[in-house]
Amino acid sequence: MNQLADPPPVLSEHPMLRPLAPVPSSGHIFDFPGRVGTVDMDENQGLRVDGIARHIQEAGVDHLVHCGALESHPHWIVRRTVIDVIRPITWPAKLRTRRWCSGISPRWCTMRVRIDSESGGLIETEGFWIHMNKQTMSPSRVDDKFFELMCTTTTEQRLRWQQWLTDPLPPVPPTRFPLRRTDIDHFQHVTNTAYWHAVHEFTTDATDLTATAHRFILEYNKPIRHGEPLDIHPYRTPEAQSLWFTVDGDLRAVAQLRSLP
Q1: Residue 226 sits in which domain range?
Q2: Per-residue exposure over 237-259, b if at least 16 CB sit within 10 Å of its own CB, e if not
Q3: Whole-structure pTM over 0.85, yes or no?
């Protein structure tokens, strides 16, 4: 007797567990080659998660240069980064990186980045980026030309922010995480990618979660400045490894690692 195949898994409706948007068939896609840098590989020659974060941040700057928008839109902050490691990338490897808009409003957008390696590695990412006025430190409208260009790859033109990681700070002892001056950006804040040093440090041993495709999420709530006493509160459940970033008990960011369905 033939056995029935198992039904496909039912994904949660929570956006935290939804697949990222696929590569669009048309529209403005920034497509460029690259390679894995030795500075970004771990002890097993794999591309570290903080290296992925650096790659997608520099891809954002290069994309602005490519479409002639760096001078008019130089200042952005990231509110959330999602990194899906579908198939790990190992050194050495040539890369193909594609970046496009997956949702937009006049002052912010979500930008997808897909990274393929010649050896079959695949990483999918999405960042929620806010266009900033550096003088007022407040969200600023993008110009019409930039908005129209980004709309060529998405029909979502009223993008709204929704917090994903909302669990309260758990009652676990914190670990002090020293900051360096090299972690500070031009806003006088800890740079986006420096947070990922802590994510890598506290998730490397969660091999049961990273043995198959897995997702990292990092949400930035408030900036951290050099000299502030940063504590990391790690908390493990069967489903996820979570990290809370606090300064004197004040929550500044939350990160989570979990396996993908």
Answers
A1: 175-259
A2: eeebbbbbbbeeeeebbbbbbbe
A3: yes
